[in-house]
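Progress report, Aim 2. The chain analyzed during this reporting quarter is listed below.
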Amino acid sequence: MQTRFGHIQFNVQPANLSFYKELITFLGWPVIMEGDDFFGVGGPTGDSLWFIGYVKPVSNDYDGPGMNHIALAAASQADVDAVVAYLADRGVPALEEMASREWLARQSGWRARANAAQANCFEAIPFYIGAVIIQGLLIMVGFIFCCIGAPIVAFFTVFTPFFAVEGGRLVVE
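Predicted structure tokens for the chain:
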């Protein structure tokens, strides 16, 4: 079986419908259908988001059962910053997760260690490249020793019994 994301429906207050339409179209999702109390936007692979201007009068807890949030991926930090600025112009404060640089700076414990670990990958690359170069040089030195040094050692090992030193002079026996 193979499945893919189809659509998500968001029930919003009717007064907020125009806000969501402006926001989602700003994010690059084209409107594929709309009516007086709804609109739908389409993604590049046939997926869609639907906003319905109807809600029951019930309260929702951010950490309670049900959908907590939906994340739309951005191509760069600049895109995220543009959305934060867009929302700020409309009086919507950014969540901590949207201001990622500031959010990371306030982290501690495992979150800070996880960020440091992934950051250290980039910091370690010059040392890794240096180690690879040094290893290559050592292999080359070893090769040179095998090609030049080993025959010299072999020569003296084989022919040493035939030579003797008498009075500071080398004598062939």
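The mean pLDDT is 78. Residues 7-72 form a domain with the Signal recognition particle alu RNA binding heterodimer, srp9/1 fold (CATH 3.30.720.120). These observations will guide the mutagenesis work planned for the next reporting period.
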